[in-house]
Amino acid sequence: MGDCGFTITNHEVQHHIAAAAQHILMALKACRNLTDDNRKVLSDLNSYLPNEMILGESGGGMLMDMEEQIRHSEGIIMRWESHEGMIWDSGLAQASEYLNSVREIQKIVVAIGGLPVPSGGKPRELCLRAHCILQIAMSKLEEELIHILIQHKQCYEPEYMSFRSCVEDVVYDESFVSAEDEAMESVSRGDNSGSSSEQCLVDLVRPEVISAIKSIADVMSASKHDKEFCRAFVGARKDALDEYLVILGMEQLTFEDAMKMDWKALSCEIKKWVWALRIIIRVYLRSEKWLCNQILGELGPVSLSCTFIEIAGAAMLLFLNFGEAVAMGPRQPERLFRVLDMYEVLADLLFDIDTLFIEDAGSFIRTEFHELLARLGNYVKGAFSEFRNCIASDQPRKAFSSGVHPFTNYAMNYIKTFTAYRETLDLLLRNPEEDGMDPSPETEKGAEDSSYSSCPLARHARLLASILEANLENRSKLLKDESLQHIFLMNNIHYMVKKIKDSDLRQYFGDEWIRKQIGTFQHHATDYIRATWSSALSLLNDSRRLDLNPFNRSTPRDKCKNFVAAFEEVYKSQTGCLVPDPELREDLQISTSQKVIQAYRSFLGKNSAQIGDKYIKYNADDMEKLVLDFFSGSSRSLRSSRRR
Amino acid sequence: MPATEYQGSFLGRISIRRNQVVSMDGNHEQELEDLEIFQKNISDRFSDLLSDDSSSSSSSSEPFLSIAWVRKLLDVYLCCEAEFKAVLIMGRDPSLISKPPLDRVLPELLDRSVKALDICNAVMHGVDSVRQCQKLAEIAVAALEQRPLGEGQARRAKKALAGLMTALGIDDKDSGSHKSTERAWSFGRRGGCGGGSAAKDRGLGQFRAPSWGVPKNWSAAKQIQSMSSNLVAPRGADSTGLAMPVYIMSIVTVFVMWALMAAIPCQERSGLASHFQVPRQLGWAQAMMSLHEKIGEEWKKKEKKGSGSFVGLLEEMQRMEKVGHSLMDFADGFQYPGEAERLEEAAAQAAELAETCRRMEEGLVPLQQQIREVFHRIVRSRTEVLDVLDQAGKPSAPSV
Do A254 and A334 fall within a single domain? Predict the structure, then answer.
């Protein structure tokens, strides 16, 4: 092939003109808004042209012309069959030459098809030959299409693309054994903040090749090769999406894998899911649909949506399946917030998903996502009540006396994290029969009744706090020492109140609740002092009136001695107590001074002469200083070190 | 899609009666009767699937292993599953469920159900690859329907058919190559059409990106093996208790999953036929056993012939393969104008291929939806059983 060198004779020129004129006429006739005059001129012309173009078996005129055209186009098309390179890579001139050749052949095929000639003979031969060349060209164009789609695909790289660094992240540990304040702060919701940039459309294929792809689409569909075009297009775009998912770090997990995965790894997968789903839906698939629209828009909505769903379907199933796997996992409190992240991102994206898959063919995907959202919601509710059960039923294994119990810490941090998910939790916890929650009367009358304190989350939060308090009461009973019990409750309730007061939780609990709880721990403070000091203080009492037995009467010196001994005993135990909060510690020290040192001071004031200075081991000021050692958490002894 | 013909009366009857029965003896009698009904229904349903075939070879609307037949199989599964739950859970005291042997067999059942989910997922993607075949076949049909048929269209048909053969796992050139199955999963590969230049091989052959179905090392055969490995029929007193329906349902599940994987393209299925046996000598399992034998025979036949690299027993795929092969030969040697006889034959085959495509067009989407329905049903049932176990006060539900 490839006899490109052909000469154009006068005769051929004539026929070229005639052919061109006929094309023009056909085009004009197709035009609807023609005046009658115009029409007449056209039909006159028409009557002239056929005479010129009537063709015989002799092969003259137009057939010769067509054959020449076929040969010419064939030359161009076949040249690329033996050529190593790709057409569009070789430049636009080459590409348009190729496309024009294909179009010429297509025209000839149409023209021959419309000729009133008997079947067989030269026209048929030409037609078959044209079809053959056309077929070769179609195959070539398909390859070119795929090549262009692969060569010129672009990845969307969000600024926060380096998500994979999270894999090394320390995943917070909510297990209350090691819960520290800081640990829980990091539970703050996964980065759900949608920046405006993620709303944008991006070019998934370099914009400069769009017109090339479109012209291939046009030419292929003109030869009824749209099936081939779509197949190639879908295949290439689907692969691009698959690759992109790999770039995003998505992993193909089986359900078995996901169920067996330890929580730390799963939590990381969840974060990835939340992050990737947003990018895929908001940016990638929106852009993909836009690309499909640009290229296939003219093929009609049905093939457009089918194509898009074929590209996106498998990826959507990947996200759906992971969601399902999480939703069917064990409902553990520690999973609550990560699943809430999933719920929130999905709720947020649902509208976009509905828009992306608005067509009938996508209804399956839409429904699946809606159902997944419902299941994640159920999971959240389940994990929430699991948390409640955990607070209610957690049984202490051993007595705990010092400071704030890690369990309180854990539970309060957990409750505090709810505020970050307020709207979602309000929505999900709304259903009262779900938890058998009866709106407590205190809520009804709620004085400050802001929208916060009456919302479902607030009701649940208060309920959780009271369950926690009850749990703490139970825990305190493990302590044999009554004063330790009070210290324990005081510390923990104070911690709860402080946590609530200093955070957004304040709005949920309301000032009245806070006041009440302050009263509670103050009550424990009073009880604590009574329980700790009553026996020591009774030693200072003027017992003469009470105790008539002269043998029981002790002298002031004895009393002082006994009291000091008792004080030293209490000193040893109370320095061992821990009150971590400095304010609370100070308050307790002041109350202790007021109650105890005051009594001692007045006792000494009345009796110092009788006792004698050298028998007074500590004066009141000494003792007041010693009280400042209390509640530090490390037990000290006065007997060995402070002897006079 | 009314996939499930619920036997409402059956479910209702069980729950109502169970609530009425109080005494232990009565309860047990009731249990036996429920179990009997359950077994009988299973037997009937599977016999139904069996008779569909014997009644006809091709005239039936649901030929053996056709898409329609597989859909019916899934219907049967959904029905059995619903009845199973009725027998196991409805109106039952949760504490019964936490006692031996149920405390052992139920977690095993749940474990199996998670494995079944992975199979559903693999099969979902398998249907996608069937659809790829459909697309290629449609192109071939479009080309072969052209009149007059020229060499150009023959070339087009040949290209599509070569792609189809590859997608079906039949590679003329390097048959027996273990790569061919893998290739069938990717986008399909350009067959040897036209002058093969280097540029062409770069073309379609490049679609090799991972397919998001199942992980690369996942094996359908191993999955079935692990699902059935711990399946032991309850003995002695257990054989009349609740362990029996659990066992029966497990067999039904494994069988249905096995049949799905035999019919629909799935990753790594070598030796699938021998990995699972339906128990013999059990009345309710007779029909299932016959089905198992029939499918197993088909499988072995194909495995022997295709050295393990074929795609599936789905009737439509088989037909596509057969007709495709023949049309491929036709297109390959076609020279205009062609022999009239040969043309006629090819036209008839193209019509058959078109008919197969039509069935796929009609059936594949609903089939996929139904597989997903089965998937969701399994998820839901798993949750329900876990809830009951939870109520029964079992401290820790199995994590799997």
Answer: yes
CB A593 within 8 A of CB A536: no
Which residues does chain B have within 8 Å of residue A228's beta carbon, measured at their own beta carbons?
A: 139, 160
Structure tokens at B47: 């016999």
User: Residue B309: what residue type?
Assistant: S
Closest residue in B to A84 (Cα) is B199
Q: Could you give phi then psi for residue A159, rounded to 5 degrees?
A: -60, -35
Q: What's the DSSP call for residue B310?
A: -
DSSP conformation letters of A456-467: HHHHHHHHHHHH
Residue of A136 and B31 predicted with greater confidence: A136
Predicted local confidence at residue A278, as pLDDT:
92
Mutation test of the interface with chain A: which of B1, B128, B129, B156, choosing the one with the most A Cβ atoms within 10 A?
B156
- A237 and A305 both lie in a single domain: yes
Cα A412–Cα A416–Cα A417 angle in degrees, nearest 5: 120
Residue at A642 is within a domain: no
Does residue A156 lie within any of the structural domains? no
The last residue of a domain, from among A368, A393, A418: A393
- Give the CA distances from residue A113 to residues A56, A68, A224, in Å, rounded to whole numbers and listed in that order: 16, 18, 15
Regions of chain A short of the pLDDT cut 70: 1-61, 114-120, 158-199, 301-302, 401, 431-451, 542-553, 639-644
pLDDT confidence band for B217 (50 / 70 / 90): confident
Measured CA to CA, the distance from residue B215 to residue A254 in angstroms comes to 7
Residues A385 and A410 in one domain: no
Amino acid at A49: L
Tell whether A190 and A269 lie within a shared domain.
yes
Per-state percent for chain B, helix, strand, coil, to nearest 5 = 70, 0, 30
Residue range of the domain that includes A464: 406-531
Given an 8 Å threshold on Cβ–Cβ distance, is B187 in contact with A136?
no
C-alpha–C-alpha distance, residues A538 and A561, integer Å: 13
Which pLDDT value is given to residue A212?
93
Question: What is the mean predicted confidence (pLDDT) over B67-88?
Answer: 94
In this structure, is residue A22 part of a structural domain? yes
The CATH number given to whatever domain includes residue A384 is 1.20.1280.170
Q: Mind telling me how many Å the CA of A247 is from chain B's nearest CA?
A: 12
pLDDT value at position B50?
A: 86
Query: Are residues A134 and A166 both part of a single domain?
Result: no
The more confidently predicted of residues A449 and B219 is: B219
Quick one: pLDDT at residue B199?
A: 34
Residues A266 and A289 in one domain: yes
Best-predicted range by mean pLDDT among A356-370, A528-542, B233-247, B271-285?
A: A356-370
| Residues of chain A contacting B187 with CB distance shorter than 8 Å | 235, 238-239
- A38 vs B320, residue with greater confidence: B320
Most confident of A571-575, B125-129, B255-259, B335-339: B255-259
Domain count across chain A: 4
User: Are residues B156 and A371, on separate chains, in Cβ contact within 8 Å?
Assistant: no
Structure confidence at residue B284 as a pLDDT band (50, 70, 90): confident
Prior bond of B148 cis (ω within 30°): yes
Q: For the segment B352-365, what is each residue's pLDDT rounded down to a tens digit? A: 999 999 999 999 99
- Tell me, yes or no, whether A556 and A588 share the same domain: yes
Helix axes B243-263, B102-144, angle to 10 degrees: 20
Domain closes at, from A83, A113, A148: A148
Under 8 Å CB-to-CB from A243, ≥6 apart: which residues? B209
| Residue A483 pLDDT | 86
Q: To 5 degrees, how large is the angle CA A135–CA A62–CA A113?
A: 45
State yes or no: pLDDT of B274 exceeds 50: yes
Residues A314 and A389 in one domain: yes
For residue A5, is it within any domain? no
- Contact (CB<8Å) A239/B203: no
